[in-house]
Design brief:
The complex is a heterodimer of chains A (313) and B (333). Chain A contains 13 helices and no strands. Chain A is an all-alpha fold. The chains are: A mainly alpha (313), B alpha/beta (333).
Amino acid sequence: MRTLISIRLRNAAVLLVLATMLCFTLVVSAPGNVAVLIAELRSPKATFEQIRAVEEELGLNDPLVVRYGNWLGSALKGDLGVSYKTGESIGPALAGRLHVTGILVAGGAIFAMILSFTLGFIGALMPGSIGDATTRIIALLGASMPSFFVGALLIYGLAVELRLLPTFGSAGLSSWIMPWMTIGLLPAAVLSRVVRVGLEEAMARPFALTASAKGLSRGRIIFRHALPNIAPTYINALGAQGGAMVVGAVVVEPLFALKGVADLFLQGVLFRDFMVVQACLLVFLTSFIILNLLVDIGMMFSDPKLRRQGANA
Amino acid sequence: MTGALLQVRNLTVDLFTARTALRPVDGVSYSVQSGETLAIVGESGSGKTVSNFAPLGLMPTGVVADIHGSILFDGTELVGMPEKQLRRIRGGGIGTIFQDPMSALNPALRVGRQIAEVGELHLGLTSMQAEARALELLKLVRMSDPEARLRQYPHELSGGLRQRAMIAIAIAGEPKLLVADEPTTALDVTVQAQIIALLKDLQQRLNMAIVLITHDMGVVAGTASKVVVMYAGRVAEYGTAEQVLLEPRHPYTQGLIAALPLPEDPPGSPFRGLPGAPPILGAPVKACAFASRCPLVLENCTKAVPQLLSISGVSATACHVVNASRLKEPANA
């Protein structure tokens, strides 16, 4: 087990370096020039010479390899550079925003888990019932609606019309409810199908008949016998949806005026502030890698066959 | 036959799925005394399994079973019993062993837990007591290294060990009747013998009756005191093991026994199978279902369903030909 995790961590480090390289290349080769924007900020009618001066100042004319090397060198020392736009150090700015995105995604994931299990169990306990049909419709709607639409709908319904919840901000639990629902609805819809279909398949397997021959009730067979069998599939799907939620934060954070990492990323993209973009991407990539590691560990714990392999690795 | 542990009378099962309706069991009767073994033999699809599982409510999801007739188990009528009471019988009064021990055990749960939960449910044990009892049961089914087995998962056990675990589960509720559905079919020949020996041993120790569903005549000869031969959902022949195996009277039973490979057969000799195939179980046929494959077939065989006729001293047979000759010269022996 421990060896397996250390192997995964080593792989993750290599993966992280390769991924940042790719991101660096993509961001730098994207159209638009930050030097033009900065020069225009300093004097609205910047001359070509002034722009060249800014480029020189920022080191934009160095070869790509040198620029990446410089960036990686200081990043390893904990220095993520300064924002081209504000001149602020990016590290502290990012650190002050991490918890916002963290709460958003974690809360959304918990919301998605609760909702998906509720919907999935209703369907599995009473297959073919009205409840089952309702859960299917909710899942279909949830999976079909983009999060910006869901968010707008929630804001209109819960905040504007019913005046139950604040429309934005991150003060107190009530302001988090809508962002969590917005970011968690699609994963909840997808995961509810994983639960429903997984339980149905498990209940059709011979061990469910054995459990029935023991005299267990349908409810107990579902919870005690079928559920442990869908755990690996569910954890895997949850990991994939978790990744999707980190990406979804780019939409949800601006919608609810949350000052998180995704919001910073968006600002960086708009200003071609690629030091900020690169730092945000580093955070996203790291979170993906941690997520995948957690999924692997979770799979190992939930699947007896994988657990023994892990112990022997 | 009063005082029988299991008394099945005129049992008929109709199965309805989304697409089809079948009658896999049609007017079956037999009885099992406590502590004895009854073997039900027949080809695949002859209704052996369904006749035992459908009345217990053990059907795959999506299949609706319509059951007529009567099954008295220990004095209680099982046909029409509400599911809630039936659950107490399943695993409690009647234990069940399935054909394939790999798929019948839950791959995600430890063996010990799967055994222990039966004790918790039917004997009202705490989980500690049930775990302790699971250990005893593993010793009882002669599992090597039982302490370690308790904490293992099914995939870590061999086929024979899995079937022993399955047997431990089946007897964990202290059943009076054990229904074993082809318990040795999925196992190696050497392991088959061990499992049969184990079942016989457990039967004596725990005074269980066993309904053994099989198509292995060797197993029947070694274990059963009574035999039901089923063909196309009906009882073809019913009698003691000696009667049915040594003096089979129904042409189907005779064909089954003649089909057994003999030690003196030269290598490479062809199998003596029965010609033809069993009928598809759709609407009940108003004729002898075996008529198309029968060497003795008479005109009457395609016109009326033969009734199971019991005569003392010999096996009861549902065959026009056999029964006609019996009636002409009444048995005096």
